[in-house]
Amino acid sequence: MTRQRFPFSLRLLPLMILAGTAASVQAQSLVDLYTAARGFDASYQSAKSQFDATLAKAEQAQAAILPTVGLTAGISQTNQDVQLPVSRNYSYNSQSATIAASQPLYRPANLASYEQGKKQVTLAQAQLSQAEQDLIVRVSQAYFDVLASTDTLEFVKSQKAAVAEQLASAKRNFEVGTSTITDSREAQARFDLVVAQQLAAENDLRVKSIALDQLVGTTNARPKPLNAPVALSGIQPADAERWVNDALTNHPGIKQLEVALDVAVLETAKAQAGHKPTLDLTGSLTTSNTTNGSSTGTADTRANVASVGLSFTLPLFAGYATQNRIKETVALEEKARTDLEATKRVVAQGTRTAYFGVESGLGQVKALEAAEASSQSALDANKLGYQVGVRINIDVLNSQSQLFDTKAKLAKARYDVLVGGLKLRQAAGTLKAEDLQPVNSQLAR
Known about the structure:
By secondary structure, the protein is α+β, with helices and mostly antiparallel strands. Helix content is 65%, strand content 14%. It has 10 helices and 4 strands; from the N terminus they run αααββααααββααα. A 4-stranded antiparallel sheet has the order 1-2-3-4, with no helix packed on it. α6 packs antiparallel against α8 and α8 (321-388) runs antiparallel to α9 (393-428). It is elongated and about 145 Å long.
Protein backbone atom coordinates (compact mmCIF):
# COMPACT_ATOMS: atom_id res chain seq x y z
CA MET A 1 0.00 0.00 0.00
CA THR A 2 1.31 3.43 -0.90
CA ARG A 3 1.24 5.93 1.94
CA GLN A 4 0.06 9.36 0.83
CA ARG A 5 2.29 12.20 2.01
CA PHE A 6 0.82 15.64 2.70
CA PRO A 7 2.69 18.91 2.62
CA PHE A 8 3.88 20.17 5.99
CA SER A 9 1.53 23.15 5.85
CA LEU A 10 -1.50 20.94 5.28
CA ARG A 11 -0.57 18.71 8.21
CA LEU A 12 -0.49 21.80 10.43
CA LEU A 13 -3.83 23.13 9.16
CA PRO A 14 -5.99 21.42 11.82
CA LEU A 15 -3.73 22.76 14.56
CA MET A 16 -3.88 26.25 13.07
CA ILE A 17 -7.68 26.08 12.97
CA LEU A 18 -7.81 24.98 16.60
CA ALA A 19 -5.42 27.74 17.60
CA GLY A 20 -7.51 30.33 15.77
CA THR A 21 -10.66 29.04 17.43
CA ALA A 22 -9.05 29.23 20.86
CA ALA A 23 -7.93 32.79 20.19
CA SER A 24 -11.41 33.80 19.03
CA VAL A 25 -13.00 32.61 22.26
CA GLN A 26 -10.34 34.06 24.54
CA ALA A 27 -11.86 36.09 27.34
CA GLN A 28 -11.63 39.87 27.06
CA SER A 29 -11.19 42.44 29.79
CA LEU A 30 -13.43 45.43 30.32
CA VAL A 31 -10.81 47.78 28.85
CA ASP A 32 -10.47 45.57 25.76
CA LEU A 33 -14.19 45.64 25.04
CA TYR A 34 -14.45 49.37 25.74
CA THR A 35 -11.65 50.02 23.25
CA ALA A 36 -13.51 47.94 20.68
CA ALA A 37 -16.75 49.83 21.37
CA ARG A 38 -15.09 53.23 20.82
CA GLY A 39 -14.38 52.29 17.23
CA PHE A 40 -17.71 50.61 16.57
CA ASP A 41 -20.57 52.15 18.54
CA ALA A 42 -22.75 54.25 16.25
CA SER A 43 -23.88 56.67 18.96
CA TYR A 44 -20.31 57.50 19.94
CA GLN A 45 -19.19 57.84 16.32
CA SER A 46 -22.12 60.20 15.71
CA ALA A 47 -21.02 62.30 18.70
CA LYS A 48 -17.47 62.48 17.33
CA SER A 49 -18.76 63.66 13.96
CA GLN A 50 -20.91 66.28 15.70
CA PHE A 51 -17.82 67.38 17.64
CA ASP A 52 -15.86 67.94 14.41
CA ALA A 53 -18.81 69.77 12.83
CA THR A 54 -19.23 72.06 15.85
CA LEU A 55 -15.53 72.96 15.80
CA ALA A 56 -15.79 73.84 12.11
CA LYS A 57 -18.87 75.95 12.83
CA ALA A 58 -16.98 77.81 15.54
CA GLU A 59 -14.27 78.73 13.04
CA GLN A 60 -16.92 80.13 10.69
CA ALA A 61 -17.87 82.78 13.24
CA GLN A 62 -14.47 84.44 12.89
CA ALA A 63 -15.44 85.54 9.38
CA ALA A 64 -17.75 88.15 10.93
CA ILE A 65 -14.77 90.28 12.06
CA LEU A 66 -12.36 89.60 9.20
CA PRO A 67 -12.16 91.55 5.92
CA THR A 68 -14.01 90.47 2.83
CA VAL A 69 -12.52 90.70 -0.65
CA GLY A 70 -14.29 90.25 -3.98
CA LEU A 71 -13.29 90.30 -7.63
CA THR A 72 -15.59 91.35 -10.47
CA ALA A 73 -14.57 91.12 -14.13
CA GLY A 74 -16.36 91.71 -17.45
CA ILE A 75 -15.76 91.81 -21.17
CA SER A 76 -18.02 93.17 -23.92
CA GLN A 77 -18.08 93.99 -27.67
CA THR A 78 -20.10 96.91 -28.97
CA ASN A 79 -21.32 97.60 -32.53
CA GLN A 80 -22.75 101.08 -33.08
CA ASP A 81 -24.28 102.49 -36.27
CA VAL A 82 -24.64 106.27 -36.54
CA GLN A 83 -26.88 107.55 -39.40
CA LEU A 84 -26.91 111.29 -38.91
CA PRO A 85 -25.34 113.65 -39.75
CA VAL A 86 -22.75 111.24 -41.21
CA SER A 87 -23.26 107.53 -41.56
CA ARG A 88 -20.63 105.73 -39.53
CA ASN A 89 -20.11 102.34 -37.89
CA TYR A 90 -18.22 101.86 -34.66
CA SER A 91 -17.06 98.45 -33.37
CA TYR A 92 -14.98 98.29 -30.19
CA ASN A 93 -14.18 95.97 -27.28
CA SER A 94 -14.04 96.81 -23.60
CA GLN A 95 -12.73 94.90 -20.58
CA SER A 96 -13.03 95.81 -16.93
CA ALA A 97 -12.02 94.28 -13.60
CA THR A 98 -12.75 95.48 -10.09
CA ILE A 99 -11.37 94.21 -6.81
CA ALA A 100 -13.19 95.47 -3.71
CA ALA A 101 -12.42 94.94 0.00
CA SER A 102 -14.22 95.81 3.18
CA GLN A 103 -13.03 95.62 6.78
CA PRO A 104 -15.55 96.00 9.63
CA LEU A 105 -14.38 98.65 12.10
CA TYR A 106 -17.37 98.87 14.35
CA ARG A 107 -20.04 96.20 14.07
CA PRO A 108 -21.22 95.10 17.55
CA ALA A 109 -23.52 92.43 16.11
CA ASN A 110 -20.60 90.80 14.27
CA LEU A 111 -18.48 90.88 17.40
CA ALA A 112 -21.24 89.14 19.38
CA SER A 113 -21.51 86.47 16.67
CA TYR A 114 -17.76 85.89 16.91
CA GLU A 115 -17.99 85.44 20.69
CA GLN A 116 -20.87 83.03 20.22
CA GLY A 117 -18.72 80.99 17.85
CA LYS A 118 -15.96 80.68 20.43
CA LYS A 119 -18.48 79.33 22.92
CA GLN A 120 -19.25 76.51 20.50
CA VAL A 121 -15.83 74.97 21.22
CA THR A 122 -16.72 74.52 24.89
CA LEU A 123 -20.10 73.14 23.87
CA ALA A 124 -18.51 70.60 21.52
CA GLN A 125 -16.10 69.38 24.18
CA ALA A 126 -18.91 68.96 26.71
CA GLN A 127 -21.05 67.02 24.22
CA LEU A 128 -18.21 64.65 23.32
CA SER A 129 -17.35 64.14 26.99
CA GLN A 130 -20.95 63.25 27.74
CA ALA A 131 -21.03 60.75 24.88
CA GLU A 132 -17.78 59.14 26.06
CA GLN A 133 -19.03 58.80 29.62
CA ASP A 134 -22.28 57.30 28.38
CA LEU A 135 -20.33 54.75 26.33
CA ILE A 136 -18.19 53.78 29.33
CA VAL A 137 -21.27 53.13 31.44
CA ARG A 138 -23.11 51.26 28.69
CA VAL A 139 -20.17 48.95 28.02
CA SER A 140 -19.59 48.34 31.74
CA GLN A 141 -23.27 47.62 32.35
CA ALA A 142 -23.43 45.19 29.44
CA TYR A 143 -20.16 43.56 30.52
CA PHE A 144 -21.32 42.85 34.06
CA ASP A 145 -24.82 41.92 32.91
CA VAL A 146 -23.23 39.04 31.01
CA LEU A 147 -21.15 38.06 34.05
CA ALA A 148 -24.23 38.17 36.29
CA SER A 149 -26.23 36.04 33.86
CA THR A 150 -23.32 33.59 33.59
CA ASP A 151 -23.12 33.30 37.37
CA THR A 152 -26.86 32.81 37.65
CA LEU A 153 -26.76 30.01 35.10
CA GLU A 154 -23.87 28.32 36.90
CA PHE A 155 -25.66 28.57 40.24
CA VAL A 156 -28.83 27.12 38.71
CA LYS A 157 -26.83 24.24 37.25
CA SER A 158 -25.21 23.58 40.63
CA GLN A 159 -28.61 23.71 42.29
CA LYS A 160 -29.97 21.31 39.67
CA ALA A 161 -27.17 18.85 40.42
CA ALA A 162 -27.78 19.15 44.16
CA VAL A 163 -31.54 18.68 43.76
CA ALA A 164 -30.95 15.69 41.48
CA GLU A 165 -28.77 14.15 44.15
CA GLN A 166 -31.41 14.83 46.77
CA LEU A 167 -34.09 13.35 44.48
CA ALA A 168 -32.06 10.17 44.04
CA SER A 169 -31.55 9.97 47.78
CA ALA A 170 -35.27 10.38 48.44
CA LYS A 171 -36.09 7.64 45.96
CA ARG A 172 -33.59 5.25 47.57
CA ASN A 173 -34.94 5.99 51.03
CA PHE A 174 -38.49 5.42 49.84
CA GLU A 175 -37.53 2.08 48.31
CA VAL A 176 -36.00 0.89 51.56
CA GLY A 177 -38.91 2.27 53.54
CA THR A 178 -37.10 4.97 55.52
CA SER A 179 -39.05 7.88 53.92
CA THR A 180 -42.45 8.58 52.44
CA ILE A 181 -43.45 9.17 48.85
CA THR A 182 -43.93 12.82 49.77
CA ASP A 183 -40.16 13.33 49.94
CA SER A 184 -39.72 11.99 46.41
CA ARG A 185 -42.54 14.08 45.02
CA GLU A 186 -41.24 17.22 46.71
CA ALA A 187 -37.77 16.61 45.32
CA GLN A 188 -39.20 15.91 41.85
CA ALA A 189 -41.23 19.13 41.94
CA ARG A 190 -38.16 21.12 42.98
CA PHE A 191 -36.09 19.45 40.23
CA ASP A 192 -38.68 20.37 37.58
CA LEU A 193 -38.70 23.94 38.84
CA VAL A 194 -34.91 24.17 38.62
CA VAL A 195 -35.01 22.84 35.05
CA ALA A 196 -37.38 25.69 34.14
CA GLN A 197 -35.10 28.17 35.89
CA GLN A 198 -32.14 26.84 33.92
CA LEU A 199 -33.96 27.37 30.62
CA ALA A 200 -34.79 30.94 31.64
CA ALA A 201 -31.19 31.57 32.75
CA GLU A 202 -29.81 30.24 29.48
CA ASN A 203 -32.11 32.53 27.50
CA ASP A 204 -31.21 35.52 29.65
CA LEU A 205 -27.50 34.87 29.11
CA ARG A 206 -28.08 34.55 25.38
CA VAL A 207 -29.91 37.90 25.24
CA LYS A 208 -27.30 39.69 27.39
CA SER A 209 -24.46 38.27 25.27
CA ILE A 210 -26.10 39.45 22.05
CA ALA A 211 -26.48 42.95 23.53
CA LEU A 212 -22.79 43.04 24.47
CA ASP A 213 -21.70 41.77 21.05
CA GLN A 214 -23.81 44.40 19.31
CA LEU A 215 -22.36 47.15 21.49
CA VAL A 216 -18.68 46.31 21.03
CA GLY A 217 -18.85 44.99 17.47
CA THR A 218 -17.41 41.52 18.15
CA THR A 219 -18.76 37.99 17.98
CA ASN A 220 -19.03 35.82 21.08
CA ALA A 221 -17.47 38.33 23.47
CA ARG A 222 -16.48 36.58 26.69
CA PRO A 223 -15.95 38.88 29.67
CA LYS A 224 -13.33 37.92 32.23
CA PRO A 225 -14.79 37.04 35.65
CA LEU A 226 -13.83 38.75 38.89
CA ASN A 227 -10.85 37.59 40.86
CA ALA A 228 -11.59 35.50 43.94
CA PRO A 229 -11.78 36.54 46.68
CA VAL A 230 -13.48 39.76 45.63
CA ALA A 231 -12.32 42.88 47.46
CA LEU A 232 -14.44 45.96 46.92
CA SER A 233 -13.05 49.33 47.96
CA GLY A 234 -15.12 52.05 49.57
CA ILE A 235 -16.12 55.40 48.09
CA GLN A 236 -13.42 58.04 47.96
CA PRO A 237 -14.07 60.74 49.01
CA ALA A 238 -16.64 59.44 51.46
CA ASP A 239 -18.69 62.66 51.39
CA ALA A 240 -21.78 63.03 49.23
CA GLU A 241 -21.61 66.84 49.17
CA ARG A 242 -18.09 66.82 47.77
CA TRP A 243 -19.33 64.67 44.92
CA VAL A 244 -22.21 67.10 44.39
CA ASN A 245 -19.83 70.06 44.27
CA ASP A 246 -17.72 68.26 41.67
CA ALA A 247 -20.86 67.54 39.66
CA LEU A 248 -21.95 71.18 39.67
CA THR A 249 -18.51 72.13 38.34
CA ASN A 250 -17.73 69.34 35.90
CA HIS A 251 -20.96 67.77 34.67
CA PRO A 252 -21.15 68.01 30.84
CA GLY A 253 -24.88 68.68 30.91
CA ILE A 254 -24.35 71.71 33.14
CA LYS A 255 -21.49 72.95 30.98
CA GLN A 256 -23.68 72.75 27.90
CA LEU A 257 -26.42 74.82 29.51
CA GLU A 258 -23.86 77.32 30.81
CA VAL A 259 -22.75 77.77 27.20
CA ALA A 260 -26.39 78.09 26.17
CA LEU A 261 -26.86 80.88 28.70
CA ASP A 262 -23.74 82.70 27.49
CA VAL A 263 -24.96 82.39 23.90
CA ALA A 264 -28.38 83.74 24.93
CA VAL A 265 -26.76 86.76 26.60
CA LEU A 266 -24.74 87.44 23.44
CA GLU A 267 -27.89 87.06 21.37
CA THR A 268 -29.42 89.89 23.40
CA ALA A 269 -26.32 91.96 22.68
CA LYS A 270 -26.78 91.26 18.96
CA ALA A 271 -30.40 92.36 19.15
CA GLN A 272 -29.44 95.58 20.96
CA ALA A 273 -26.88 96.26 18.22
CA GLY A 274 -29.81 96.85 15.89
CA HIS A 275 -29.99 100.40 17.36
CA LYS A 276 -26.26 101.04 16.95
CA PRO A 277 -24.37 102.42 13.93
CA THR A 278 -21.87 100.44 11.88
CA LEU A 279 -18.60 101.61 10.38
CA ASP A 280 -16.61 99.81 7.69
CA LEU A 281 -13.36 100.59 5.91
CA THR A 282 -13.84 100.09 2.17
CA GLY A 283 -11.51 100.11 -0.79
CA SER A 284 -11.64 99.21 -4.48
CA LEU A 285 -9.48 99.17 -7.57
CA THR A 286 -11.03 99.18 -11.06
CA THR A 287 -9.18 98.69 -14.34
CA SER A 288 -10.94 99.20 -17.72
CA ASN A 289 -9.61 98.82 -21.26
CA THR A 290 -11.18 99.78 -24.58
CA THR A 291 -9.76 98.63 -27.94
CA ASN A 292 -10.61 99.77 -31.49
CA GLY A 293 -11.81 103.05 -30.15
CA SER A 294 -15.14 103.94 -28.69
CA SER A 295 -18.24 105.98 -29.41
CA THR A 296 -16.27 109.13 -28.63
CA GLY A 297 -13.08 108.40 -30.50
CA THR A 298 -10.92 105.97 -32.39
CA ALA A 299 -8.01 105.63 -29.94
CA ASP A 300 -7.62 102.76 -27.46
CA THR A 301 -8.14 103.79 -23.84
CA ARG A 302 -7.08 102.45 -20.45
CA ALA A 303 -8.24 103.72 -17.08
CA ASN A 304 -7.35 102.76 -13.49
CA VAL A 305 -9.54 103.98 -10.67
CA ALA A 306 -8.69 103.39 -6.98
CA SER A 307 -10.78 104.44 -4.02
CA VAL A 308 -10.56 104.18 -0.21
CA GLY A 309 -13.28 105.29 2.13
CA LEU A 310 -15.42 104.81 5.22
CA SER A 311 -18.95 103.48 5.13
CA PHE A 312 -21.15 104.64 8.00
CA THR A 313 -24.70 103.41 8.61
CA LEU A 314 -27.08 104.57 11.34
CA PRO A 315 -30.43 102.78 11.78
CA LEU A 316 -33.24 105.24 12.37
CA PHE A 317 -36.48 103.25 12.36
CA ALA A 318 -37.23 99.60 11.52
CA GLY A 319 -40.90 99.34 12.37
CA TYR A 320 -40.24 98.35 16.03
CA ALA A 321 -38.58 95.12 14.82
CA THR A 322 -35.44 95.79 16.88
CA GLN A 323 -37.36 96.56 20.08
CA ASN A 324 -39.42 93.38 19.79
CA ARG A 325 -36.35 91.32 18.96
CA ILE A 326 -34.73 92.56 22.17
CA LYS A 327 -37.80 91.54 24.17
CA GLU A 328 -37.63 88.07 22.60
CA THR A 329 -33.94 87.54 23.35
CA VAL A 330 -34.30 88.77 26.93
CA ALA A 331 -37.09 86.23 27.50
CA LEU A 332 -34.97 83.46 25.94
CA GLU A 333 -32.05 84.51 28.10
CA GLU A 334 -34.21 84.10 31.21
CA LYS A 335 -35.36 80.71 29.94
CA ALA A 336 -31.74 79.58 29.52
CA ARG A 337 -30.96 80.73 33.05
CA THR A 338 -33.95 78.82 34.42
CA ASP A 339 -33.03 75.69 32.46
CA LEU A 340 -29.52 75.84 33.88
CA GLU A 341 -30.79 76.10 37.44
CA ALA A 342 -33.21 73.21 36.92
CA THR A 343 -30.44 71.02 35.51
CA LYS A 344 -28.17 71.82 38.45
CA ARG A 345 -30.86 70.61 40.82
CA VAL A 346 -31.40 67.41 38.83
CA VAL A 347 -27.66 66.72 38.66
CA ALA A 348 -27.24 67.33 42.39
CA GLN A 349 -30.09 64.96 43.19
CA GLY A 350 -28.78 62.34 40.76
CA THR A 351 -25.30 62.54 42.26
CA ARG A 352 -26.60 62.07 45.78
CA THR A 353 -28.73 59.15 44.62
CA ALA A 354 -25.72 57.53 42.93
CA TYR A 355 -23.54 58.06 46.00
CA PHE A 356 -25.98 56.53 48.43
CA GLY A 357 -26.70 53.75 45.95
CA VAL A 358 -23.04 52.69 45.99
CA GLU A 359 -22.90 53.08 49.76
CA SER A 360 -26.02 50.92 50.14
CA GLY A 361 -24.61 48.39 47.67
CA LEU A 362 -21.44 47.97 49.71
CA GLY A 363 -23.57 47.33 52.78
CA GLN A 364 -25.65 44.78 50.89
CA VAL A 365 -22.50 42.95 49.75
CA LYS A 366 -21.32 42.59 53.35
CA ALA A 367 -24.76 41.44 54.48
CA LEU A 368 -25.04 38.91 51.65
CA GLU A 369 -21.55 37.57 52.38
CA ALA A 370 -22.67 36.90 55.92
CA ALA A 371 -25.94 35.43 54.63
CA GLU A 372 -23.99 33.14 52.28
CA ALA A 373 -21.96 31.74 55.16
CA SER A 374 -25.11 31.31 57.27
CA SER A 375 -26.97 29.63 54.41
CA GLN A 376 -24.12 27.20 53.89
CA SER A 377 -24.10 26.33 57.57
CA ALA A 378 -27.89 25.88 57.53
CA LEU A 379 -27.65 23.56 54.51
CA ASP A 380 -24.95 21.45 56.14
CA ALA A 381 -27.02 21.20 59.32
CA ASN A 382 -30.17 20.20 57.41
CA LYS A 383 -28.30 17.56 55.43
CA LEU A 384 -26.97 16.07 58.62
CA GLY A 385 -30.40 16.27 60.24
CA TYR A 386 -31.96 14.54 57.22
CA GLN A 387 -29.44 11.73 57.46
CA VAL A 388 -30.21 11.10 61.15
CA GLY A 389 -33.94 11.53 60.66
CA VAL A 390 -34.61 14.83 62.46
CA ARG A 391 -35.11 16.81 59.22
CA ILE A 392 -37.25 16.02 56.20
CA ASN A 393 -36.37 16.35 52.55
CA ILE A 394 -38.14 19.68 52.04
CA ASP A 395 -35.88 21.26 54.68
CA VAL A 396 -32.80 20.31 52.68
CA LEU A 397 -34.36 21.50 49.42
CA ASN A 398 -35.30 24.85 50.92
CA SER A 399 -31.80 25.28 52.33
CA GLN A 400 -30.30 24.53 48.92
CA SER A 401 -32.57 27.06 47.22
CA GLN A 402 -31.76 29.69 49.81
CA LEU A 403 -28.00 29.13 49.44
CA PHE A 404 -27.92 29.37 45.66
CA ASP A 405 -30.30 32.32 45.63
CA THR A 406 -28.01 34.11 48.10
CA LYS A 407 -24.97 33.33 45.95
CA ALA A 408 -26.66 34.79 42.87
CA LYS A 409 -27.74 37.92 44.76
CA LEU A 410 -24.23 38.37 46.18
CA ALA A 411 -22.62 38.14 42.74
CA LYS A 412 -25.15 40.61 41.32
CA ALA A 413 -24.61 43.00 44.24
CA ARG A 414 -20.86 43.03 43.62
CA TYR A 415 -21.33 43.83 39.96
CA ASP A 416 -23.82 46.56 40.84
CA VAL A 417 -21.26 48.17 43.17
CA LEU A 418 -18.60 48.21 40.45
CA VAL A 419 -20.96 49.68 37.86
CA GLY A 420 -22.43 52.00 40.48
CA GLY A 421 -18.99 53.47 41.15
CA LEU A 422 -18.66 54.32 37.47
CA LYS A 423 -22.17 55.77 37.41
CA LEU A 424 -21.30 57.91 40.42
CA ARG A 425 -18.35 59.38 38.53
CA GLN A 426 -20.61 59.89 35.53
CA ALA A 427 -23.11 61.73 37.72
CA ALA A 428 -20.28 63.92 38.98
CA GLY A 429 -19.07 64.53 35.42
CA THR A 430 -15.56 63.20 36.15
CA LEU A 431 -15.77 59.76 34.51
CA LYS A 432 -12.88 58.99 32.14
CA ALA A 433 -11.60 55.91 30.36
CA GLU A 434 -8.78 55.71 32.93
CA ASP A 435 -11.37 55.00 35.64
CA LEU A 436 -11.88 51.55 34.08
CA GLN A 437 -8.40 50.46 35.12
CA PRO A 438 -9.19 49.91 38.84
CA VAL A 439 -12.20 47.81 37.82
CA ASN A 440 -10.15 46.00 35.20
CA SER A 441 -7.51 45.11 37.81
CA GLN A 442 -10.11 43.10 39.75
CA LEU A 443 -10.75 40.79 36.79
CA ALA A 444 -9.09 37.42 36.33
CA ARG A 445 -5.84 37.45 34.36
